[in-house]
Amino acid sequence: MSDIHGFNEDLLRFLDASPTPFHAVETMAIALRAAGFEALDERDEWQLKPGGRYFVVRNGSSLVAFSCGESNLLQRGWRMVGAHTDSPNLKVKPTPELHRHGYFQVGVEVYGGALLNPWFDRDLGLAGRVNYENSQGDMRSCLLNITRPVGLIPSLAIHLDREANNSRTVNPQKDLPVVLLQSDEKQDFRALLAEALAAQGVADVATVLDYELSFYDCQNAAMVGWNGDFIASARLDNLLSCYIGMQALLTSDAQSHTILVCNDHEEVGSQSAVGAQGPMLESVLRRIAGDEVGLQRAMANSMMISADNAHGIHPNFSDRHDTNHGPLLNAGPVIKNNVNQRYATNSDTSSLFRRLCADEDVAVQSFVVRSDMACGSTVGPLTAAALGVKTLDVGVPTFAMHSIRELAGSQDAFKLTKVLVAFYGLAELGVAN
Prior knowledge:
Aminopeptidase i, Domain 2; nine-stranded mixed beta sheet; about 30% strand; hydrolase
């Protein structure tokens, strides 16, 4: 944790390797295995050992990693960090084929609250999970990542829409079908997928049964700005926090009982078998604790930090922020507050975080949405309500959240990781129950 350049270079590689939640979880699983974490199967009986480090994956898109510390769990509790693996994007429909005027297009659904205008005129790759039947009649699934530009959504020329700069809106059904190729012949999207799988070494594909595929911007993550002040990438919300949480977990000491949970489906409400409103985290904690009384005792000594990006004050739109709560990029992590419980922060948990930041010589900021605007939310309140655990919502300040390409400071992820390492190592919370 002393080399910010190496940290950011590895972060860029992580972002590029993770175009979908499936790929993000696979990338994290590889890193965890390399660090000595053991993969567990929920169908098996677990034999957990003091000092052991483990992880479990559900649906290929959500992950819980944890360390069984050498201290007393019931007295010390868990130090938990939560993030989410999904980002707004365009997902391919089940029967997507559109043949119009000699062009083959595929229909898409908008996943989450995407900022749609930036999706036009981008080089789009395609990635996700494909389920298929092989020549022996066995059902299989694999990940697909077509990194070359295979699609685009061309804008309508301004000559044909003179009011485009004043009033252009996006109709997702009409305006977003993706152009894949030019042909007068009918195309079968599943047949194209079989060809793409074969090109990636999956040869025995008799029939593509189904898929969960998303388009994504082929432009790589990059350090940008005159002095390299910024990180520009797709999916900073919230792969940035997944990476931060993972690096903090890998650095945590052996005494700690630590948890990293990275859930799918946050952008669409988290209500799924693998979302933060689902049972995944609680079921893992129950298996670690061993019984209901043990779970409740450990939970009373535990705390969750929900890490999800915060809105940095935009210099062109500063009026969209509360005057006293406009976080700056590269000025430190942001405590997210909302009296209506859209964030789970309270004075106990925020005070603890402020003290940790002071100990690590990291500046800290606060965000409160304008009183005349609606506030977004994240996994923090959901986890707090489900588990009854003390919770704090924090994040790295970001521009262009939910765009196809977002912007964050090049120092903030490193700073937040330092604080989370200290949090993971806390022997006592020092906050009221």
